[in-house]
Amino acid sequence: MDALTRLDRERLLVTWRSLAMKPEMVQWYPYELNECGEIVTNPFPSARRQIVLTDVYVQLNEQLGHLAAMSVAVTTLCFGIMVPDVIWMSLDKWEGSDRDDPVPFVPDLCVEVLLDSERRQHIARRVNAYLEGGAREVIVVSPRGQVEFWRAEGQRQVSMFDLELSLDGRYFEEDGAIA
Predict the structure, then answer these.
(1) In this structure, is residue 62 part of a structural domain?
(2) Strands 109-113 and 137-141, how do they pair?
(3) Distance between CA 38 and CA 15 in Å, rounded?
(4) Is residue 10 in some structural domain?
(5) CA 145: distance to chain centroid?
(6) What is the pTM for the complete model shown?
(7) What is the pLDDT of residues 83-93, one digit of tens each?
(8) From CA 136, how far away is CA 151, in angstroms rounded?
């Protein structure tokens, strides 16, 4: 497929559905599709990253109501189908979504945890894709446990959702080593 050929939402979904039926794709879940419909594989998160993802998920549910989810595929306007670590959106948006397909839009809040993740080098692109796709806020948790709040206007010191994430420091890196 030509690198310049961007697929529209419907063609991305057709590609996604055909991949979902292939048993060998289970090992790459949650895989993503770039804007050209090419597979972007993601390794399974480490145990410590899963602990942090779960912690963020639980805190979002406690603070915003039980409408958060982990590893849900979402359709962005310009970067294909991506899988944020954690998402949150209002109940009316959940009710309007097909549970078998990627969410056809970007949810209100997307979270990326960069702990032992290969996404570090692409985080600016991911944040921009979520914001351009309609996210009201993107939270990035750095490998050292710092929490960043991003909006269309840029980085902010506090969450527009009044979130306060308290993360256990023992799972994060200190000068390249685990604390």
Answers:
(1) yes
(2) parallel
(3) 9
(4) no
(5) 17
(6) 0.90
(7) 999 999 999 88
(8) 6
